[in-house]
Amino acid sequence: VHGGLGSAHGKAILMGEHSVVYGAPAVALPLLDLQTAASVREANHGSISSDLYTGPLHAAPRELKPVVTALRATAERVGLNSDSFEIVISSTVPLERGLGSSAAVAAAMVRAVSNAVGVALTPEETFELVQIAENVAHGTSSGLDAHAVRSLSPVRFQSGQPTPVTVARSLTFVIADTGTSGSTSAAVNGVRMLRKVNPSFVNGIIDTLAGLAEDTITALGAGDAAALGQHMSAGHEQLARLGVSAPSLDALVTAARMSGAHGAKLTGSGLGGCVLALVDGADSADGVIDAMKAAGATQAWKTSLVSSQIA
Ligand code: PMV
Fold first, then answer.
1. Judgement on whether residues 155 and 180 belong to the same structural domain of the protein
2. For residue 17, is it left (φ>0), alpha (ψ between -120 and 50) or beta?
3. Given 12, 35, 211, 276, which residue has the most CB atoms within 10 angstroms?
């Protein structure tokens, strides 16, 4: 084993969470300020080192089961004995906030392990190995996160197919954390149950969200921040009707809109986690950040979709 390194980044879903599970398109943004790194070094027993836990693989806590399962599968794929190395993970992607931490850790790990033995995996193979972790973490997963944490441009995702999205100009977003974590599987199951009870209601919302995802792509391509913000706020309303918002999320969306954001919505599976707001340039971000903190955000920060990310 030679030292292998791998990295990935966080993501935010701009439109289409939940509806993507039913075949509608979704759009995710890369969050390049939030990075996850993994490195592999030779050791005499399989072990993992991270903020959550440091010790032997077999004694890793439940939270690490997704990455440990994917780690063993990756080692097997590249012909490495998973008891012959230590994997060291460091990440600035907040955990369980809908920002892609589990997929980012898995993607960084897959790259580190394959680099350690010099085996080049195809994007499809890497995706499948990251999906092993995502499926252990969330039951079943659309695959959006697994693509978004490796893509440097915004990505459109539908029925397993990722496509880069063109963005006409740089945009500034604010991400605000409610400080609570929503369970992705609880949110996804809640929508599935509601759809069983009331299919026409839920299918109508899925169709509306599908239209909003296409409108979002159009607004990104035209650089129309006002339209994009309106689509985001409309998307939040639809997600609330699906039952995946929460009072803490609604309060942050309202605060963002009242303080001059173009629009705002929950991002990720909901029930907790984060709100994504589109602001009118970096200068107006501070007022929106203050308003969202006053409305209960435990953390809020700005992030840009800059020209280097433009496809
Ligand atoms: O909780 P997150 O950010 O990983 O988002 C899950 C996105 C869903 O659409 C709710 C589920 C999925 O598998 O796409």
1. no
2. beta
3. 276
